[in-house]
Amino acid sequence: MSGPLFIYGPLGCQPLLSASLGQDGVDLARIATLPEYEVTAQSGGPLMAGLCPGRSRVEGWLVTDSDAVARLAYLAEVFDLGAPVPVALELAGKTIEALTFPGHPGSEPWQQEAWASRWGDLIEVAAAEITALMARVPAGDLAGRLQIVLSRAAARVAARTAVPADLRSAADAGQADEIACDISHAGYFLSRNYTLRHPRFDGTMSAPMRREVFVATDAALVLPYDPVTDRVLLVEQFRMGPYGRGDPRPWMLEPVAGRMDAGETPEQTARRECLEEAGLELRVLEKISSHYCTPGYSTEYFHLFLGLCDLPEETVGQGGLASEQEDIRTHIIGYDRAMTLLTSGEANNGPLILSLMWLERERARLRASA
């Protein structure tokens, strides 16, 4: 795609422009106006806004630099903003012919400040990842992975809220000297290579080190528990990690678990996943922990809960989404049977072990208040 391009709404917000074009590209853009149109929005996602004919005027940016236009066109295809259409703009008293993307208009007025408050940081991070992949991943392929790109961006934004440092070092990540960072793998999952130096405990800087990081999303996990009948629900499914390690039994018993979608809270994800994987509605969520799983090489972060619910009489069931190729078997077992999984070693993943140990500690309280 070449020629002048008019961008507006979410695609035209300053943080996203800076992430996708760089400051030089932003400096080349000019403010222009599209008469007799308005921007409207749909609920349900960060890029659900678009153009509608109307009596108002839409202010946006006219981009003419060919490299900047190509980057924005790539972003628009990944975000599924539609095929470009011609529009007549007003700029400095002149009419300018340009192309624009129609987007996803809806029934609600688009409010820039509210959008920026909720989605701005997330979309800025996502746009930086997307444009970094422009030379190696076709836009259509990346569009099919957009939800996990947005989930990775949401995790990076959530990580900005740090936990206390009363015992450990309170040194800021900004004190590390990042020499280089590049994407080493860009499939459904993402890996980055970092070359950096970091402050040592003796006050000196470390020698340059090269480390590969698996860039994952945040996830919510929940162990459903019925305090009246004193039973828990576990899910069983085939897992690639044990299979890749050479485990002869790669079917795992686990809590209900799922990736956090962009815009979701951990609690919302936990409730959604219980419905999808086990058909359960939870009454109350009890927080167990939020923690990194393998901080030596992965960004993956778990929010772990116990969910109080009414479990059905059936002890074995099926669950999961066919659209995600999930083949899930559910097991409803008594508390005593669950504890034998700890002693036998059949509970052999961290979230299940931690959940059952937490339940052992809190069981009397939960049953007394049921």
What is the global morphology?
globular
How far is the first residue's CA from the last residue's CA? 63 Å
User: Which radius of gyration do the C-alpha atoms yield?
Assistant: 25 Å
Q: H/E element string?
A: EHEEHEEEHHHEEEEEHEEHEEEEHH
The helix fraction, in percent, is 25-40%
Largest sheet: 8 strands, mixed
Low-pLDDT windows of residues: none
Gross CATH architecture of the largest domain: Alpha-Beta Complex
Class computed from helices, strands and strand pairing:
alpha+beta
- In CATH terms, the superfamily of the largest domain is Nucleoside Triphosphate Pyrophosphohydrolase
Provide the domain count: 3
Question: Mind telling me the CATH class of the largest domain?
Answer: Alpha Beta
Number of strands: 17
Mean pLDDT across every amino acid position: 93
β content, as a range?
25-35%
What does this structure look like?
The protein is of the alpha+beta class and 370 residues long. It folds into three domains: 5-132, Roll (Hypothetical upf0131 protein ytfp); 139-160 and 176-215, no CATH class; 218-368, Nucleoside Triphosphate Pyrophosphohydrolase (Alpha-Beta Complex), CATH 3.90.79.10. The chain is built from nine helices and 17 strands. The chain has helices spanning 14-28, 66-78, 112-132, 139-143, 146-158, 240-245, 266-278, 335-344, 350-368; strands at 5-7, 30-41, 49-63, 85-91, 94-100, 108-109, 177-186, 190-197, 209-215, 218-226, 231-238, 251-254, 256-259, 284-292, 301-308, 316-319, 328-334. The strands form three sheets. Strands 10, 11, 12, 13, 14, 15, 16 and 17 form an eight-stranded mixed β-sheet that branches. Strand 4 (85-91) and strand 5 (94-100) form a beta hairpin. The radius of gyration is 25 Å and the shape is globular. The mean pLDDT is 93.
